[in-house]
Design brief:
Layout lengths: L1 E2 L7 E6 L1 E5 L2 E4 L3 E8 L3 E4 L5 E4 L1 E5 L12 E3 L5 E10 L7 E8 L1
Parallel strand pairs: 1-11
Antiparallel strand pairs: 2-5, 2-9, 3-4, 5-8, 6-7, 8-11, 9-10, 10-11
Length: about 110
């Protein structure tokens, strides 16, 4: 299994994992800085409930960072723009030679 090469992970993003909602609103964990490849391109995607939503950015990172991205997590992009995780998907080709990575769809 080949991980996505570090040379392609040129951006740094800050991820605050979504912990849930409480009496004072949404709660987030401490920020974690993650290396990623960021693509700020608008596209139509489906969220976890199947509803169509507009994604403003997509990031790709190492498989080991997969747990950082529960839906609703807050992500600060290199441009300073704050966005939220719609969904995160594991890309693992079971040893066929492709790059293994996590793809995160952002609102």
């Amino acid at each position: 299994m080949a991980e996505i090469p570090a040379v392609l992970l040129r951006h740094r993003v800050d991820v605050e994992p979504y912990l849930g909602s409480g009496a004072h609103g949404d709660a987030y964990g401490p920020p974690v800085r993650v290396r990623a490849q960021v693509d700020e391109k608008r596209r139509l995607v489906r969220d976890k409930s199947g509803a169509e939503v507009v994604s403003e950015a997509t990031l790709r990172g190492r498989l080991a960072t997969e747990s950082h991205y529960p839906p609703g997590s807050r992500v600060t992009l290199p441009t300073g723009r704050v966005t939220w995780v719609i969904s995160a998907h594991r890309h693992d080709d079971a040893g066929l030679g492709g790059w293994q990575h996590t793809e995160v769809v952002l609102a």
